[in-house]
Amino acid sequence: MMKLVRGAIAAFVGLLGFTGAWFFVLSDLYAQQFEVHGVVLRIGVLGIATLVFLIIGYMIAPLMIRTARNLLRWWENRLQNMPAADLIGGIIGLIIGLIIASLLGPALAGIPFVGDYLPLITSVIMGYLGLSLGIKKRDDFINLNMSRIRTFTGKEKKKETFGDAGASQTSAVQPAADAIRSGDACSYKILDTSVIIDGRVADIYRTGFLAGKIVIPRFVLTELQHIADSSDALKRNRGRRGLDILNAMRKDMNGVIQIVDSDFPEVAEVDAKLVSLAQQMSGDILTNDYNLNKVAELQGVRVLNINDLVNALKPVFLPGEEMQVLVLKEGKEQRQGIGYLDDGTMIVVDAGKKYINQTIYAIVTSVLQTSAGRMIFVKPKFNDDRVLVEERHIV
User: Fold this and answer.
1) What are 180-205's pLDDT values in tens digits?
2) 125 and 13, same structural domain?
3) Does residue 296 share a domain with residue 218?
């Protein structure tokens, strides 16, 4: 196949050489240059020109093939990585641009001298502008179509109430079909119930480390309302705290929070609905639920676990380092003692049971890191006489 393609390219370039030589031997320049119109000389010029261009085409064919292959691969990768919203918007814009160019073509064709070339130039320019604007205005195209559908069905909602917290807002509620990830900084972070109640997501977003839109599914709001209406005082307080946090986020981050109506009636569990919504929107799930983290990762959904972020920011202790530990209680294993760092990290002290309520120097032996937290294993530090090195008073 490569040889056939190379031969075809060489034949095409040779044909170009033959065509150029043919016009040359018919021109006045040829007659003046050689002052002869012999058939043999003309055939010789045509043959030499064709042979030279054949050789040139055969030599440059591999470079042209590699260039074309790389260009096709580049376009294929771009199209594969391009979000569906960009692709749809680009196609719509390209079609509109070409329609406008076709309407302008007959009028431009009548211009003297350049009229034959203007329709082609206009098609290229308008096609490019339509493609570029279509990609940039993709959300407007999709929102326009969805608003027409929702107007037709009469299901558009204009009021959004968060529940017993007493705060309501007027928001343009977009369905999940509108929330197609664009692939740029405007990605979608889908919140689950636990991370809303936790409340740290608002502080993380304000720091700028969490970019994109905050998406709250309506079924998560429903679950929060059920928790806030619970007869259990602890659950009721947790639910109301989550609603209060949402209202505070709505006021502080205007335009960032987006409510989606999409539901999955065939799915019973809220966690499974979150995974399905994230797959539909090509978004990320923001949570601190360990089980949801694992289930979502198994189904190919990216999960941002706040506990992982907190653990990553904790001080790093390497085996062999020295630290001070206040042993607070007995551990699960025999003779173990338990202490904690200021950030809540558990420290397991080997043979530390007898040092309860004492601050001792210890040496780190190992560190266990999981999504549920981090544990540091240490052993008491002794001097050469096997005497425990106690904490020294520091002014």
Assistant:
1) 333 344 478 888 888 888 888 888 88
2) no
3) yes
